[in-house]
Amino acid sequence: MDVKIKRIYAMAEPSDGMRVLVDRLWPRGVKKADAAIDLWAKNAAPSAELRTAWHADKKGHEASHFAAFAESYRDELASGEASEAVDHLVELAKASPRVTLLYGARDEHTNHAVVLRDEVLRRAKL
User: Fold this and answer.
1) What range does the domain containing 8 cover?
2) β-pairing verdict for 99-103 and 39-40
3) What is the pTM for the complete model shown?
4) What is the DSSP string of the chain?
5) What is the largest CA-CA distance in the chain?
6) How many domains does the chain contain in total?
7) Mean pLDDT of the 97-105 span
8) Are 20 and 100 spatial neighbours (Cβ–Cβ below 8 Å)?
9) Tens of pLDDT along 39-53?
């Protein structure tokens, strides 16, 4: 089982395996026909409220602020439709040689896909 993360703006490659968009909103400037996604997992993305609060935090990409965001996001992923979406991603990861979670954020290290990948991998090991 291999779960990777990648910006949706990067070129699609055969080595990506199953490509899953994990943003709630469609990324700006990306044509749906060119996205090469296999699944759009909107419910695995942060809620509109959490996303808005994250973007409003001018220090959101600092380690301590990102840690607070990540904790809130993990809380969201623990129940409801978000939890079901994560469970579905776990099933896909177990059934596919590679799953690539696609996101639109500019920062490759402090974004929700990092947290989501870790949660998928954690649940897959249970």
Assistant:
1) 3-125
2) unpaired
3) 0.92
4) --EEEEETTSPP-GGG-EEEE--SSPPTT--GGGS--SEE-GGGSPPHHHHHHHHH-TTTTSHHHHHHHHHHHHHHHTSHHHHHHHHHHHHHHHHSS-EEEEE--S-SSSSHHHHHHHHHHHHHH-
5) 40
6) 1
7) 96
8) yes
9) 999 999 999 999 888
